[in-house]
Amino acid sequence: FLDTGLAFTYQPDIDITSVQPVAVPQSGGVLTVLGRGFLDSFELSCRVGTSEPQRALWLSPTAIKCRAPPG
Predict the structure, then answer these.
(1) In this predicted structure, what is the pLDDT of residue 2?
(2) Which element (helix H / strand E) includes 46?
(3) Residue 45: how many CA atoms within 13 Å on its side-chain side?
(4) pLDDT in tens, 15-70
(5) Count of beta carbons in the 10 Å neighbourhood of residue 32
(6) d(CA 69, CA 54)
(7) How many whole angstroms from its chain centre is CA 37?
(8) 14, 63, 65, 70 — which has fewest CB within 10 A?
């Protein structure tokens, strides 16, 4: 054990059970992702398709909201 001043946090895998709605308009929209294991973190993000990851809104350990880009 070395005291380097670096912090380590273990995060177990998340489990996604559903995404609502299952389709979004061509103009984009907001998705609710349900599951378990979501942590309230500045680094919480979503990637929809091949888009760049975007910040997600943490609602609870079982739900987050994500923006689906136009496309």
Answers:
(1) 65
(2) strand 45-46
(3) 9
(4) 999 999 988 889 999 999 999 999 999 999 999 888 899 999 999 999 999 999 88
(5) 14
(6) 9
(7) 10
(8) 70
